[in-house]
């Protein structure tokens, strides 16, 4: 990747990925993903920030042929047999390290495309015809620091790179599984409130609010672990303060799991 480019400016995307089963099921969410795909220009490459590469450190995949990682258990064989054979991009990996700084980011070769990435790209780019690189989420950093890292990636938009965060705006799996077992999929007030507060802050480009709202009572209920919220901060940071914000997919799965997706253009 070079800093000067004639590539069209890419949008920025956050996608609520939900269950791995969305890779193979036909439902409201997968229909929404495919509809979203038709709204996206073809990127030169994709940089994905997935909730499922959450560890101490900021790393970027440098594999020329990143493996499809089946990082889940207890699902049908058909899901484990799925492959997403997109190429990687050493060039993009090195560019990301350059933007973030070699003192805080490094290229790694022991990861690939986890299900936060490939289960949605299966619908967005079904031909796996665009190089894909993943960026890890450093579990040691504060939310505001993740937002700042997203800001540092903003220039990729002008180099033909689609920056994509993949997580969920609300992600309390204990509540979701309890709802599934009981059959009561009523959306609780805390999930509705957090989802709406976040949507409003996204529209207002209020990065400070997005960084601190996770510490509210609704935030702690929505995210017993912060991993699925942080990809949204990377997308919001990379999007900057201009352009439009749309929510091409919204609603709740299993009562409390927000499937909201965010498209910045």
How would you explain this protein's 3D organization?
It is a single chain. The chain is an alpha/beta fold and 265 residues long. The chain contains ten helices and ten strands. The strands form three sheets. Strands 5-2-6-1-10-7 form a six-stranded mixed beta sheet, with helices on both faces. It has a two-stranded parallel ribbon with strand order 3-4. Helix 5 (143-152) packs parallel to helix 10 (230-239). The longest helix has 15 residues, at 189-203.
Instruction: Give the strand order, joined by hyphens, for the main sheet.
Output: 5-2-6-1-10-7
Give the number of helices: 10
Proportion of residues in β-strands: 15-25%
End-to-end distance, in Å?
21 Å
Radius of gyration: 17 Å
Work out the number of β strands. 10
- Note the run of SSEs as H and E: EHEEHHEHEHEHHHHHEEEE
Mean pLDDT across the residues is 96
Largest sheet: 6 strands, mixed
Low-confidence stretches: none
How would you classify the helix and strand content by structural class? alpha/beta
Described by the principal axes of the CA atoms, the overall outline is globular
Main attributes of the structure:
two-stranded parallel sheet; globular; 265 residues; 10 helices; alpha/beta; 6-stranded mixed β-sheet; 18% strand
Short description:
The chain has 265 residues and is of the alpha/beta class. The protein is 35% helix and 18% strand. 48% of the residues are buried.
Question: Would you spell out the secondary-structure blueprint of this structure?
Answer:
Blueprint: E1 12-16, H1 28-37, E2 45-55, E3 59-61, H2 77-80, H3 90-100, E4 106-108, H4 115-124, E5 132-138, H5 143-152, E6 161-167, H6 173-182, H7 189-203, H8 207-212, H9 217-222, H10 230-239, E7 245-249, E8 252-253, E9 257-258, E10 261-264
Parallel strand pairs: 1-6, 2-5, 2-6, 3-4
Antiparallel strand pairs: 1-10, 7-10, 8-9
Helix pairs in contact: 5-10
């Amino acid at each position: 990747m070079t800093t000067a480019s004639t590539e069209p400016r890419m949008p920025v995307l956050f996608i609520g990925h939900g269950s791995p089963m969305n890779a193979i099921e036909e439902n409201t969410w997968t229909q929404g993903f495919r509809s979203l795909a038709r709204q996206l220009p073809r990127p030169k490459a994709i940089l994905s920030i997935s909730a499922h590469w959450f560890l101490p450190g900021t790393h970027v995949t440098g594999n020329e042929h990143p493996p499809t990682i089946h990082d889940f258990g207890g699902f049908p064989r058909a899901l484990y047999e799925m492959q997403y054979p997109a190429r990687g991009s050493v060039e993009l990996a090195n560019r990301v390290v350059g933007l973030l700084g070699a003192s805080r980011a490094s290229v790694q070769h022991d990861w690939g495309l986890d299900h936060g990435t490939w289960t949605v790209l299966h619908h967005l780019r079904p031909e796996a015809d665009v190089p894909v690189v993943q960026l890890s989420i450093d579990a040691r950093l504060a939310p505001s620091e993740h937002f700042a890292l997203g800001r540092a990636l903003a220039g990729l938009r002008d180099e033909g790179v689609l920056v994509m965060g993949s997580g969920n705006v609300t992600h309390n799996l204990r509540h979701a599984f309890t709802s599934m077992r009981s059959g009561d999929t009523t959306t609780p007030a805390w999930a509705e409130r957090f989802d709406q507060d976040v949507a409003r802050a996204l529209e207002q480009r209020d990065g400070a609010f997005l960084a601190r709202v996770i510490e509210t009572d609704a935030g702690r209920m929505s995210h017993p672990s912060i991993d699925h919220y942080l990809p949204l901060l990377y997308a919001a940071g990379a999007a900057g303060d201009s352009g439009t914000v749309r929510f091409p997919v919204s609603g709740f799965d299993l009562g409390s799991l927000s499937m909201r997706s965010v498209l910045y253009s």
